[in-house]
Specification:
5 strands, about 140 residues, alpha+beta
Length: about 140
């Protein structure tokens, strides 16, 4: 991609933190649904911090976060990365975007898991750029 098409850098207030899923996700999801429903959401993503890769950003100034993570059950024939947003002040939503999916049974066929992940991360970073105009 030519340099002039590179996306602008992420706002400095967003910190990348991919080590583990933030407890904020569980708290926000439980505040909107029951614990039982929260445990089942996105194939148990927020109860079992086991699925990788993930990309996560946190904005401590406004207590908001953005997450890219697998959202489908591991046994499904098509896997998909979801983009999840915890806006300032509370709440939880899934960002509707292009499908960032791959077929695990065809690991060398494009889009691969890595290609799908990179596309989801790029879209999440574009979302952060837009989100900064509203915070």
């Amino acid at each position: 991609m030519p340099h002039w098409q590179d996306p602008p850098p992420r706002p400095a207030t967003w910190q990348r933190c991919d080590a583990g899923i933030l407890p904020l996700w569980w708290d926000r999801l439980c505040s909107q649904t029951s614990q039982q429903s929260a445990a089942l959401f996105a194939a148990g993503l927020f109860t079992e911090d086991r699925r990788r890769p993930i990309a996560q950003w946190y904005n401590p100034a406004v207590d908001s976060a953005l997450l890219v993570a697998p959202e489908s059950s591991p046994e499904w024939p098509v896997q998909r990365f979801g983009i999840f947003y915890a806006p300032p002040g509370g709440g939880f939503t899934q960002v509707h975007s292009a499908p960032h999916e791959w077929h695990p049974r065809e690991p060398r066929t494009s889009p691969t898991e890595l290609e799908a992940f990179r596309a989801a991360v790029a879209e999440a970073e574009r979302f952060l750029q837009v989100e900064m105009y509203f915070v």
